[in-house]
Amino acid sequence: MVEGQGGIGGRGAEGRRGMVLADRGPGSPSRAFAQVRAGPLGGAGGGRPDQGIPGRGWDLGQGRPGPGWGGLLPVRPEGGMRVWITMFDDPYDDARVVREVEALREMGLEVGILHGLFDDCPRRRKYAGAGLVPVPLGRRRRGKLPFLIFYLKAFLIVARLKGEVFHSQDVYSLPVAYLGAKMSGARLIYDVHEYYIGTPALSGRPLERTIWGAVERTFVRKADFVITVCDSIADVLRKRYGIPRPRVVRNLPRFRRAPRTDALRKWLGIPDEEPILVYQGVLQRGRGLFVAMEALRRLKRGVLVFLGDGVLRDEVRGYAVRAGIEDRIFLPGWVPLEKLPIYTASADMGLCMIEKLGYSYYVSLPNKLFQYMMAGIPVLASDFPEIGKVVREAGVGLLADPSDPEDIAVKAQMLLEDKDLWEQCSKNAEKAAEVYNWEREKGRLVEVYQVACK
Questions:
Q1: Are 63 and 92 in contact (CB under 8 A)?
Q2: pLDDT attached to residue 120
């Protein structure tokens, strides 16, 4: 097992193959990733976190401060229609929210975000050109207290906000957005990122599932527009709540083409004869991490690179050692966002083995699926409704049962050994990337707002 040295492109001691564990020094991938995320939208680090993107915006420092509000009450800008986005979490880590904010500002709309903020999160005035109004939640993240604090403070704040549209990004903030819309005589949009009552977070918690189901049922029917991320969730919401079918606005990444390179081989010291399977994303339950390693154990050749980090990092390391494949597993940690496509494009196959830990996972449409397409590499993905539909229609790879390591190994072997199949999937991926991207998809959001703002 090799300890990685700091810095992108650093290799383990003596350049040996094996499990590369990035440190947390100033130049490590994890630290570099944090610096990128702290910069302006989509760019590398270098600006203050609160700078966002310059442009028309809000003066959030002039309002009369109230208890716990930090003085961040908005002053209405001159001209333009105003949109208020509400959400329980910090918007900084939600790429969908950021992309939507940019699309709305391109329409000439003024955007503000009312959001929860825990003590360990940085306070910002603007992000992606939107004014931020945080609702301080304290330190405690578990239990009912953060929600009680959020509602007590958010209801008081939203009662003073004026706008033409209130746009809720989660079921938690839906009642807040409803109140704001009601008091302003504004339109209400509910943006369903996932089928929340079908998520693993509520598995085995019938009381919480009942409560949030009741909240959603009550307020989704009061929304003027409901949008969601895929057809399956749209159909479930229509049937469950008896509402018109929600408009689908898929959560697609921005288009970015990445040329084929040998970046991963050079960085991690992977021999030329070893095929590279890559997983990009958070290391957490339900992402097929362990079944992917078990499938790799069945392959005679190949290495698996996890481009990401998370709570399961140590478990992944331990599993690899117990399975005797520690020299074929690489854990370099996070890499800078601007370098991620380059590393992904240097792999031979992208893994998207989402597990069925609930209905929401079963009908999910992960970003990584489309990022693999933009990298021009074939995909091996879960044979689930939404993922399967995209993979089949676009012809970008093969599907497997995410609970069956033998099936995954067989399909991986097919992609790696059949050069004609690999080439065709790669070409199809490049073509599909020109269709499955945010630059095209945002038109659906724009259409909703063109009606909402009449």
A1: no
A2: 64
- Higher-pLDDT residue of 245 and 128 is 245
| Residues 102, 246 within the same domain | yes
Total structural domains within the chain: 2
Handedness of CA 150, 104, 387, 410 (dihedral sign): negative
Q: Exposure string (b/e) for 127-139, b if CB count within 10 Å is 16 or more?
A: bbbbbbbbbbbee
Same domain, 157 and 245: yes
Please, is 207 exposed, middle or buried when counting C-beta atoms within 10 Å of its C-beta (0-12, 13-18, 19+)?
A: exposed
Confidence class for position 44, pLDDT limits 50, 70, 90:
very low
The residues, any chain, with a CB within 8 Å of residue 276's CB and separated by 6 or more, are 264, 265, 270, 302, 303, 305, 346, 347, 348, 349
- pLDDT at position 153: 93
SS3 content of the chain, % helix, strand, coil (to 5): 40, 15, 45
- The residue to which tokens 């903030």 are assigned: 173
Task: Check which CATH number belongs to the domain holding 286 and give it.
Answer: 3.40.50.2000
- Say whether both 267 and 238 belong to one domain: no
Strands 130-138 and 126-127: antiparallel
Regarding whether 305 and 184 lie in a shared domain, the answer is no
Of 10-24, 111-125, 206-220, where does mean pLDDT reach its minimum?
Answer: 10-24
**Which helix H or strand E contains 32, and what residues bound it?**
helix 29-37
The pLDDT value recorded for residue 79 is: 52
Residue 361 belongs to what domain range?
Answer: 2-24+254-433
Same domain, residue pair 427 and 448: no
CA distances from 376 to 141, 275, 347, 401 (A): 40, 15, 10, 23
Helix (H, G, I), strand (E, B) or coil at 334: coil
Tell me the mean pLDDT in the region 75-104. 82
**258 with 338, same domain?**
yes
User: What pLDDT, in 10s, does the model give residues 334-354?
Assistant: 888 888 999 999 999 999 999
pLDDT at 203: 75
Gap between the Cα atoms of 76 and 379, Å rounded: 48
Assigned token pair, 332: 């370099």
Please state, in angstroms and rounded to a whole number, the distance separating the CA atoms of residues 280 and 270: 18
Instruction: Examine the domain organization and report whether 240 and 111 are in the same domain.
Output: yes
Q: What is the pLDDT of residue 125?
A: 67
| Average of per-residue pLDDT across 247-266 | 92
147 Ramachandran zone, left/alpha/beta (phi>0; psi -120 to 50): alpha
Residues 214 and 279 in one domain: no
